[in-house]
C-alpha cells in the first residue's frame, strides 16, 4: 500500500534533514571559527609587529602569515571535502549505507574530539581534524541523498533541500562563536558535538536501510524499523529486477518509441559517462563557481579585516551577518528543486505529443536551473569584487543563494542526466576533480597578499570573466535536447 510506512519515511526525511543541517557541512562556517581561534591566540606567533611609527609607538601587527596558515587549513579541508567524495561514493556504492555511515561517524567523532582538545600550542592538529570533519560530513550527505527516492515525484526537491541543509550547517560555527562570547568554552562545544554521535548511530540502525534505497521504489519496500529478516533478499531481488529491466530496454515494447541509433549504440559503462562531453562541461560549471565560493569563504576574515581597517568589533558584526545568511541556505535550495520538478512535469506532458524521450525531458528541466545558478554566481562575484564594506551584505545574500543552488543543482542534475547505478561514483568523481581546481584558492590568496599587496582587483576581474564561461554548460545541455527533439519532430 502506498501509505504503508509513511510515518517511518517522514521520520527518516526529517531526521536526515536535521543531520545535514547540524553536522554535514559545518566547515563552511570557517570565518566564525577563525574569529574564535584568533581570540584563543592560535598561530599568533606568526604575527610580526610593524616598524615603529613615531618614537616607541608601533603600528598594528602584520598577521599575513597567520591568515595564510588559516587559509591553508581551509583549503586542505575544502579540498578533502570534494576530493574524498569519489572514494566516499565508491564506499557507498560498494559497501552500502550502514558501512558508509559507521565510517562517517568514526571520522566525525575523532575530528570533533581532536578540535575539542587542541590549544594554541597544538594548533597544527587542525590540519588533521578539519579534513576528517569534512570527509565525515560528506559521507553523511551522500547517504542521506537517497532518501529522496522514498518520495517519488518530489525527489529533486528533497535532494536540493538536503544540499541546502548542508550549506546551512555552516551556521553551527556561528552558534559556537556566540556561545564562546557568552563564556562557553570551545572545548565544551565540540565535546557536545562529539556526544551527538550516539544519535547518528541510532539513526543508522533504526531509520536508514542497510543497503540502498532503490529508485523507482518497488512495492511494499521496507527498511530500518520495518525491515524483516528478508531485507537483504528483497534488496537483491530488487537489484536483479532493475538489471533485468535495464536489459529489457534493449528490446523496446511495442507501444514505446524505438530509440535512435545513437541511443542504441551508447555504452552503459561508468567511464562512457565520465568521459562524455555532458559530464565535462558540468565539471567546468561546478569547478569555476565553487572556486569563487571557496576563495570567498576561506579569505572572508582577512577581507573583512582589511575593509574594516582592523576594527575587531566591526569584523565580528559582519562575520555574524555572513553566518546568519548561511543558515537560510536550507530555505533557498528547495526552490531550485521545485523549479526542476515543475518543469519536468510540464515537459512530460509535452513529451506525450512530441515523442521526446524521458532523458530529454529530464535534461530540459535542468537547463533553467543551471543558467540561473551561473547568473547568481556572476552577481555574487561582481559584488564581492567591489571593496565597499556595506555592499558585502548584498554579497552575503547572493552568495548563500548561489551556493545552495549550486550544490543542490549539481546533485539533482547528476541524478537526471546519468543512470542511478553510477550516481555515487559520478557524484564523487565530479567533486574530486573540482577539488583539484579548488586548490587554486591558496596560491590566489598568497598572490593577493604578496605581489598584489592586498589589492585583489586583477584576480577578481579574471575570475569574473571565468564565471561567464559557466553559461556554456546550460547552453550545451539545451542544444543537446534540441538536437534530440529535431529528428523526432521531423519524423
From TrEMBL:
Put simply, this protein is called Solute carrier family 43 member 3
Q: Where are the transmembrane segments?
A: 12-37, 70-92, 99-117, 123-147, 279-297, 317-340, 361-387, 393-414, 426-445, 457-479
Record-linked PANTHER family: EQUILIBRATIVE NUCLEOBASE TRANSPORTER 1, SOLUTE CARRIER FAMILY 43 MEMBER 3-RELATED
Which keywords does this chain's UniProt record carry?
Membrane, Transmembrane, Transmembrane helix
**Region feature (Disordered):** 234-265
Q: Which gene encodes it?
A: SLC43A3
A GO molecular function annotation here is: xenobiotic transmembrane transporter activity
Cross-referenced InterPro entries:
MFS, MFS_trans_sf, SLC43A3
Q: Which GO terms describe its cellular component?
A: basolateral plasma membrane
Organism, by scientific name, is Canis lupus familiaris
